[in-house]
Design a protein that fits this description.
- With 69 residues, the chain is mainly alpha-helical.
- Helices cover 36% and strands 6% of the residues.
- The protein has 3 helices and 2 strands.
- Strand 1 and strand 2 form a beta hairpin.
- The model has no long low-confidence stretch (mean pLDDT 75).
Length: 69
């Protein structure tokens, strides 16, 4: 899976609707993700406190160098 020009292997439970929708579409996008991609800055520390497959973490980490998630 290519996200923000980087390749990732996303593994999840095929019974999980969220994971399955991402896997089957071979892409991901929503309002929160677009916000994270457009606002995350180099040097930031970001927290993903959700409990799923970590897609917000990828979007917070990939747009800027030296971001800690």
């Amino acid at each position: 899976m290519i996200i923000n020009s980087l390749e990732y292997q996303i593994i999840g439970d095929p019974a999980d609707d969220y994971y399955r929708a991402f896997r089957d579409a071979n892409q991901y996008g929503d309002d929160i993700t677009e916000f994270l991609k457009s606002t995350t800055q180099p040097g930031w520390t970001c927290f993903d406190v959700g409990a799923n497959i970590g897609l917000p973490s990828i979007f917070m980490a990939s747009p800027a160098p030296n971001v800690r998630v």
